[in-house]
Structures are given as C-alpha cells and as structure tokens.
C-alpha cells in the first residue's frame, strides 16, 4: 500500500511538471520534475508487486518456489533500488548541465534497461512458479475461483502494462531529450499516463487484501507438498 501510494504521488507530480512544460517549454525545473519523477514511478509499483507475489507464494506453497519467498524482497527490491539510484543520478547530472549531459542520458538508459531486465526475470520466475504449481496437483485439488481468479488476472495485467510502459520509456530516452518520441504527446498519454493509471486501477480491482482476508476467514488453503513430491 505504501509503495503504491508513493508511486501515485510521484506520477502526479511528474505529470504536473509535464503540464507546466506545455505552457512553458523552456521551464527547466518542470522538465526535470517530469523526467525524474515520471521515469522512477514504476519502481514503486514493481516493489508492491514483488511484495504481493512473495506473500502469495508463502500462502500457497513456498516449497514449489525456486528459492524462499523472502528472497524476492532482497533480490528484486534491491534491483529496483539500483535502478532508482541510476535514474536519480541521471536526473542530477541532467539538472547540473541543463539537460546537455550525455552521461546523464546514458545513466537513465542504464537504469531503465536494468529495470526492464529485472521485470523480465521476475516474469520468468512467476511463470515458472505457476507452471510448477499447476503440475503439483494442488490446482486440480483446490481450483481457483472468484476473487482468486480476479486477483491473479489483474496481477498479470498490471505486470504486463508496467513492462510495456518501461519499454516505451527506454525507447523514448534512447533518442535523447531532443528526440521525437519524447515530444510526442499522444504516445506519452497512451504509453505513459494511460498505462500507469490503468495499472493503479488494476491493482485496486485485484487487491490482495480482499483475497487473503476471505482466505483467512474461511480457513481454507491448499496443502503444501514436500519437495520429494515434485
């Protein structure tokens, strides 16, 4: 909840900077506001997704995961921190050089590329876990329905939208701050604003609290197989 809230505030402030630039394209403070905050917003959303997945695995069957769920916190959130530091450093360099630093652009690209790479690895591990879970017999014995299906469906949709958004920002910055993509407002609205807004609503509709509160009340849950059963 905290990570999503910080991400929403970051996005809103970044969009304020974008609107300010519409009225004054030479407002450098507004330029840096939107460059830094808009770029780093998905990092907070990803952190919320990583925590949600770790909790989900722990509740369903941690023995089916490739490594203990708590490592997801340490590995993926630390990777997000690295992305955040790189992009913050890029913003600092761009600010001090009035957006003329190629090193700043390269650092921003490195941070975004690392973020996309981290998300892809996360998606691969998520797919692997779901595949192992389906093969374990737990899914057949305890089929998912209702809120569980909604939760997993919207979680996957959110991950997909954030991945597309990060890939768009990577392509946008690859052409540098003076490139055509960064000036295309239509693309920005659809691949930035719309995807971020849709991601927030997707996480709301598939809120994990609704799923696991019902799970606790019912006292239900699939039995966890031992490693020897896999």
From TrEMBL:
The chain crosses the membrane at residues 31-51, 71-95, 107-127, 148-168, 188-207. It is a multi-pass membrane protein. Its main location: membrane. It holds the Pfam family RTA1. GO terms for cellular component: fungal-type vacuole; plasma membrane. InterPro entries: RTA1. Keywords: Membrane, Transmembrane, Transmembrane helix. The keyword S-adenosyl-L-methionine does not apply. The keyword Iron does not apply. It is found in: Membrane. It comes from the Eukaryota. This is Sphingoid long-chain base transporter RSB1. It comes from Aspergillus cristatus (Chinese Fuzhuan brick tea-fermentation fungus).
